[in-house]
Amino acid sequence: MDYFAYKNEQLFAENVALEDIAKKFGTPCYVYSKSTIERHWHAFNNAAGNQPHLICYAVKANSNLAVLNVMAKLGSGFDIVSGGELSRVLKAGGDPSKVVFSGVGKTPEEIAFGLEQGIKCFNVESRSELARINQVAESLGKKAPISIRVNPDVDAKTHPYISTGLKDNKFGVEREQAIEIYQYASSLPFLNVVGIDCHIGSQLTDIAPFVDALDILLALIDELAEHGIQIKHLDVGGGLGVTYDDEEPPHPDQYTQAIAQRLAGREELMLIFEPGRAIMANAGVLLTKVEFLKQGAEKNFAIIDAAMNDLLRPALYSAWQNIIPLNAALPREKAIYDVVGPICETGDFLGKNRELAIAPEDYLAVRSAGAYGFAMASNYNSRCRAAEILVDDEAVHLVRKRETVEQLFENEFIPR
Ligand code: LLP
């Protein structure tokens, strides 16, 4: 459930008409709803019940400082994948002791930064990374808390680009090698083995693959105990899907409960979740304006002022996101449009074959754009990245200014 809805045919975010925001701040712009973020976060946090647990929001989904600050105030942890994301978490008031650091290519500098800040855990993806972390920890005179990401080889049945738990993916270590790699980790003097983790993919709409992966990890935890290696936390990753169109993913509390229930009898084991999309996707929209309507030989095009540089998901994953008018009361004729941006690529579309009743200058909202929207934006075609706004009841906060053209080339030099 989210707080974007029509009131008298005007689309609102909480208690603010989105058309007012579009007029005041210009388009394209992203708008996030604070109450929706909080609601989704609590859905995860409450459902884990009495099992000790930590929600580590996946920063990559949306790393705006104001968004991270909302999460930090809730007491959230964070899942990061770079030193840049750790800096953002710190700047936003996040607690480093609740940070887990994922990713296959952590540099020595990033590892040192994590150690100096006292993060909760490094989610390690390879034997060579273990050696590197051990070395950096030694140089700092610290012990590094580590977890090993096990690739459970389950099919998440999602888009191949966002499926991560299969044998041919670059992520994690093979389950068959896990025990041996844990033994190696335990033998390294500057590592402290604390956890086990996995992440099998993103936008999963079925609970079964999560539970299959969980069972594999629980069996490994028992096997590790037989080898004298005690695992204190189990990190099940992120990946819970959302409704973009007609998908019916499990509700966060169904998902969280299904997992927590499987841990019966393991009251000591801390459960970590790394949700990104399930918290943020439907907590944000992208506002855009219709520039022109153009009739092609076979198609009608609605040319809008947002493009693939603002929202890459349709171009990259053929993702479908709903596109709706901000003012549904305008007298317009319906037609079928491809909704396209101004970028010089055929792949620059935000929607295809959409029935819309629109005219030039009308405003539209692309729904479900709060996750992997702005976070994946680029400056392709020297387009300035959009403004970002956070709505809190009736209050409207500009949380990122629209980029300026000067900013685009401030780091460039012309050799003399
Ligand atoms: N943990 C790890 C280790 C991850 O790699 C990811 C996402 C997450 C957590 C959060 O997953 P979520 O709960 O958001 O599904 N850009 C793509 C999604 C890429 C996801 C990458 N990893 C998209 O727009 O669909």
List the helices and strands and how they pair.
Blueprint: E1 4-7, E2 10-13, E3 16-17, H1 18-25, E4 29-33, H2 34-47, E5 53-58, H3 65-73, E6 77-80, H4 83-91, E7 99-101, H5 108-117, E8 121-124, H6 127-140, E9 144-151, E10 173-174, H7 175-187, E11 191-197, H8 208-226, E12 233-235, H9 252-261, E13 270-273, H10 277-280, E14 284-295, E15 300-304, H11 313-317, E16 323-325, E17 334-340, E18 349-357, E19 363-366, E20 387-392, E21 395-400, H12 405-408
Parallel strand pairs: 4-20, 5-6, 5-13, 6-7, 7-8, 8-9, 9-10, 9-11, 11-12, 12-13, 15-17
Antiparallel strand pairs: 1-2, 2-3, 4-14, 14-15, 14-19, 16-19, 17-18, 20-21
- In CATH, the homologous superfamily of the largest domain goes by the name Alanine racemase
CATH topology (level 3) name of the largest domain:
TIM Barrel
Over the alpha carbons, how many angstroms does the gyration radius reach?
A: 23 Å
Helix content: 25-40%
Name the shape in a single word.
globular
- Uncertain stretches: none
